[in-house]
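Input for the complex:
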Amino acid sequence: GAGVSQSPSNKVTEKGKDVELRCDPISGHTALYWYRQSLGQGLEFLIYFQGNSAPDKSGLPSDRFSAERTGGSVSTLTIQRTQQEDSAVYLCASRADRGRWETQYFGPGTRLLVL
Amino acid sequence: GIQVEQSPPDLILQEGANSTLRCNFSDSVNNLQWFHQNPWGQLINLFYIPSGTKQNGRLSATTVATERYSLLYISSSQTTDSGVYFCAVSYQKKSSGDKLTFGTGTRLAVRP
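Predicted:
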């Protein structure tokens, strides 16, 4: 079946602008994650959604970052007033929930460049 | 939080050679995954292996949870095996999700 998809693939923006990144998880997967891969910090967790539970936002680096998940499916990560240090690859992952631990599957990522 | 260390950081192989990549982690885990990041940046699942041994073609992995390490074996390496290999772990408690903590990766280059 279809994997995790993300859009856009690449985004170039100017410092101070807002950006929205989209993630479509694998159909039926109830858990959704956002991670970020940057040169200085490696791969790091940002936020986690599981069903109707309150999201785990513990990895968001600042209050300029927010995310929502509508209808338990598509998720949008929003970065307000972008800074150059926000430049990174933003990765989305999803996981099934069958009452046991499962593999997380990653999308191709959105490459964000803040000029 | 859990610390994840991978070794070696860089590895150069001649095509056909075998290799072992190591992942050490600092605490109990109930999720451990190995990924290959290809030159286009895509993270490809290799193994979900919180314990035990698995094999998939030329690749195999072993996790010894009690000793807090995992090994990824690549046999008869091919140029297409080049890229970065990541180990990622999580420990899920009732109060938190199974967010993955990644190691810094092993960068593998296979020469023809």
